[in-house]
């Protein structure tokens, strides 16, 4: 007596099963796959993830069951039978809640036999994308299923253009990002006409970017074997692979890129930062030495704020970065940013004693360099209550202790009227060097408290001759500057009178706090 229930009884039982139970039933009784019907057994009814029986069979590589359910002879029969046609759609194009079709699921699982079975079926769309924008070849590449990737890329029905458009996903990028060397090699060797070494995925990232990001040295070497590799391509926010290598501290990638014959180490991103600007931020000595040894590196290039790598190094307080940059033969240490501040100005502002000392020891550094407000490093130092730095600067005989800025203020005036309050030690120091100052009415209005008050202008006006503020300002700042300020209203008048300038705002913004010693 047979231990297996009659087929008809099994089919009756199958009528009440959901997708998952029906899949388990077919696993136990595989011969039933060819007996299940579209309407009677609810083949299209999905589970909570949108997977019907065909999805589950494809995902688990049940090629034999798929062959029984969808024999090739049924293709001809379905042309005149609506029910059969609906059944055929299950294999060709039904999608679950993630928009994955049986082909995508089989390809992702690496089930070659199931993939081949589905590809023989009419109506299969090789260009179909799931909810992440991935096609079947994308998911196969991500999982490193080399043979399936190659099979799909050979199909003429696959018409996705990975070379001409920045797609969300890219088989080569996915293979590289996930460390699949052989899959990437197969694509480059056999299918480079479909997916080139410079093709891009989301955010414009190339395979090289993904190799750098994931740190796969073998894949990095593979990509550099390709003669068409472009190491200068702009990716997300106009950065290059070199920028990314710096951010990832990937020294191997940096060496390879900088050794490339066509590399441009001075490419700038969306804020005009070069990779050297970013390397400075990390204070990574081996990385900086790589850049500074390259013959085409421009050490004086400026970003969108006008800052050179040296200025950035000073502002970050990274002594090793400053030291290495100053050793470069092409360095111009007095290059100004867009508010006129030099490396020495910033070092004085931030109280970076050793950096100031190092800069003052150079003959090509101007001790009296003036920013856009006419302030010298000495005035900037005492304004920030940097007594030790001011003392160091004053040791230089070329420093003019009474140099006046564009507001007629000397260093002594700045020491008296620092935003942080008057600095007794700096005042005493300056007086010992013969410092002088002129007192102006607006100085009595505290810069940080009263200058923004409604009565600020009235207070100044009350202290000037004839109580005529405009006439006073013409004498102080000249006719052109005064008329321009009054033509733009009260805010502009306040800005001129109380030194509310872009340079002052930049200094207030870029504060590191306490003095920096390294």
UniProtKB/TrEMBL annotation:
Transmembrane segments annotated in the record for this chain: none
Cleaved signal peptide residues: 1-19
PROSITE patterns: ANK_REP_REGION, ANK_REPEAT
Keyword Repeat included in the entry's annotation: yes
Keywords, comma-separated and alphabetical: ANK repeat, Repeat, Signal
ANK repeats: 98-131, 132-155
The protein, known as: Uncharacterized protein
Organism classification: Eukaryota, Fungi, Dikarya, Ascomycota, Pezizomycotina
């Amino acid at each position: 007596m047979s231990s297996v229930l009659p087929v008809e009884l099994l089919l009756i039982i199958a009528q009440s099963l959901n997708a998952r139970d029906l899949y388990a039933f077919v696993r136990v009784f595989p011969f039933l796959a060819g007996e299940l019907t579209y309407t009677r057994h609810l083949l299209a009814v999905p589970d909570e993830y949108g997977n019907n029986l065909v999805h589950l069979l494809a995902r688990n590589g049940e090629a034999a069951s798929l062959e029984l359910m969808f024999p090739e002879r049924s293709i001809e029969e379905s042309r005149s039978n609506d029910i059969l046609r609906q059944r055929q759609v299950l294999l060709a194009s039904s999608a679950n809640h993630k928009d994955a079709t049986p082909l995508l699921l089989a390809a992702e699982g690496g089930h070659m036999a199931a993939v081949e079975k589905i590809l023989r079926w009419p109506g299969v769309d090789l260009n179909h994308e799931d909810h992440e924008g991935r096609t079947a070849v994308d998911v196969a590449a991500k999982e490193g299923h080399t043979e399936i990737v190659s099979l799909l890329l050979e199909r003429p029905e696959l018409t996705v253009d990975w070379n001409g458009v920045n797609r969300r996903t890219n088989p080569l990028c996915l293979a590289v990002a996930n460390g699949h060397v052989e899959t990437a090699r197969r694509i480059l060797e056999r299918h480079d006409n479909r997916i080139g070494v410079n093709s891009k995925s989301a955010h414009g990232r190339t395979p090289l970017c993904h190799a750098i990001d994931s740190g796969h040295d073998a894949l990095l070497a593979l990509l550099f074997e390709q003669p068409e590799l472009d190491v200068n391509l702009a990716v997300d926010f106009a950065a290059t692979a070199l920028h990314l290598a710096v951010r990832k501290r990937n020294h191997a990638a940096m060496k390879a890129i900088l050794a490339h014959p066509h590399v441009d180490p001075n490419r700038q991103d969306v804020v005009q930062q070069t990779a050297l600007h970013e390397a400075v931020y990390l204070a990574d000595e081996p990385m900086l030495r790589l850049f500074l040894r390259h013959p085409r590196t421009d050490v004086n290039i400026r970003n969108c704020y006008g800052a050179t790598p040296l200025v950035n190094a000073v502002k970050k307080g990274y002594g090793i970065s400053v030291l290495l940059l100053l050793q470069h033969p092409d360095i111009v240490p007095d290059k100004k940013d867009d508010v006129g501040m030099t490396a020495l100005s910033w070092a004085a502002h931030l109280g970076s004693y050793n950096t100031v000392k190092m800069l003052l020891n150079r003959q090509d550094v101007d001790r009296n360099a003036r920013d856009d407000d006419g302030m010298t490093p000495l005035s900037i130092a005492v304004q920030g209550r940097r007594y030790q730095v001011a003392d160091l600067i004053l040791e230089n005989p070329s420093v003019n202790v009474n140099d006046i800025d564009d507001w007629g203020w000397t260093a002594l005036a700045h020491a008296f009227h620092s935003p942080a309050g008057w600095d007794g030690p700096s005042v005493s120091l300056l007086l010992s060097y013969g410092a002088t100052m002129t007192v102006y009415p607006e100085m009595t209005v505290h810069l940080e408290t009263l200058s923004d008050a409604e009565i600020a202008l009235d207070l100044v006006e009350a202290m000037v001759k004839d109580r005529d503020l405009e006439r006073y300002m013409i004498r102080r700042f000249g006719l052109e500057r005064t008329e321009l300020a009054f033509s733009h209203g009260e805010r502009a008048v306040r800005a001129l009178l109380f030194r509310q300038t872009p340079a002052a705002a930049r200094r207030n913004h870029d504060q590191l706090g306490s003095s920096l010693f390294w």
